[in-house]
Amino acid sequence: xxxxxxxxxxxxxxxxxxxxxxxxxxxxxxxxxxxxxxxxxxxxxxxxxxxxxxxxxxxxxxxxxxxxxxxxxxxxxxxxxxxxxxxxxxxxxxxxxxxxxxxxxxxxxxxxxxxxxxxxxxxxxxxxxxxxxxxxxxxxxxxxxxxxxxxxxxxxxxxxxxxxxxxxxxxxxxxxxxxxxxxxxxxxxxxxxxxxxxxxxxxxxxxxxxxxxxxxxxxxxxxxxxxxxxxxxxxxxxxxxxxxxxxxxxxxxxxxxxxxxxxxxxxxxxxxxxxxxxxxxxxxxxxxxxxxxxxxxxxxxxxxxxxxxxxxxxxxxxxxxxxxxxxxxxxxxxxxxxxxxxxxxxxxxxxxxxxxxxxxxxxxxxxxxxxxxxxxxxxxxxxxxxxxxxxxxxxxxxx
Length: 399
Known about the structure:
This is Right handed beta helix domain-containing protein. Residues 89-215 form the Right handed beta helix domain. This protein is mainly beta. It has a domain at 131-386. Helices cover 6% and strands 37% of the residues. The protein has three helices and 32 strands. The chain has helices at 31-41, 321-327, 392-397; strands at residues 2-6, 20-25, 47-50, 53-56, 61-63, 69-71, 78-81, 92-94, 100-107, 114-117, 122-130, 142-147, 150-155, 158-160, 165-170, 173-178, 181-183, 187-192, 195-200, 203-205, 209-214, 225-230, 233-235, 256-261, 264-269, 272-274, 279-284, 303-305, 308-309, 335-337, 349-350, 356-358. The strands form two sheets. It has a 21-stranded mixed beta sheet that branches. It has an eleven-stranded parallel beta sheet with strand order 5-8-10-12-15-18-21-24-27-30-32. Strand 2 (20-25), helix 1 and strand 3 (47-50) form a beta-alpha-beta unit. The longest helix is centred in the first third of the chain and has 11 residues, at 31-41. It is globular. The model is unreliable at 6-15 and 368-374 (pLDDT under 50).
């Protein structure tokens, strides 16, 4: 590890630091010890610069220091390989604030690729996470996995092979996911139990499902909503579902473009959607039993508008899929609603110039006293959420 002193202000510091250091780590023998030592020794304002090459690691890495940048030479130049990882944890765990991660790859971690927990104002920029053996149920669950945080920027990230979600943001707020590419995951991008999220400019293809917006019961933070999904290219998400049994995403049908479940105030607009065997868009309730009196299992105030639809519904991956295609002459409608809820008040607003299929399904009987939401197609639209605005320093760090 090489230390270089530089005169610099910490990127996010309210009070500038007089001097910061760059701790440089090169590939070679003892990479595990040298890289973890740099992450432990870093002080607020420092940069851990990881040189080009392959770093063969046998254990997970961790960072718990505020205002640190971890920078590689590029996602195809600096490769942190966890193929020889002995434990089952994530590749890199971040538990500190005001962190920038950019310009490196994480490959073949036993658990999640990069997890940040309680890490506010974190930037993921030009990161690649990949399981190089292709889609397998034994791959780690999540590629990029920020949770329980506020102010998250994910920009220019690539994830392949996650057995749950390539990019997952959970129980958080003020989120931007943009300019990223996800493929060969079960879920490409998932926003779960979170508020104020913008998902735009991404490409999701060859996943089981492209982009998912969920709300689940029995979690510390619920009632997610205020999500905008727009300007994405979501096509040919046709990978068979390889999630381990029992995971909620194991129920996502192969050939799903965008799926919104039990969320409030989600706007899906200006996306290019095509080549989905099941549907381009699915809007549904949470269909399993639960014991959480504060949970609402229904989708509310969901707006689907201004999207461009290509082929869909040609081989639905659901029970009775053959019947659906036959009933509609070879292609089921590209937008589905599961049909739960009372159709007479606020709810769903679908104005895309395509048919909408209501499946007329009953909700799996909940064990709480939650009141059913009321749903109406083409009801007056709920206002579109405001754009997510992150601190200027975060945007500067992503340039």
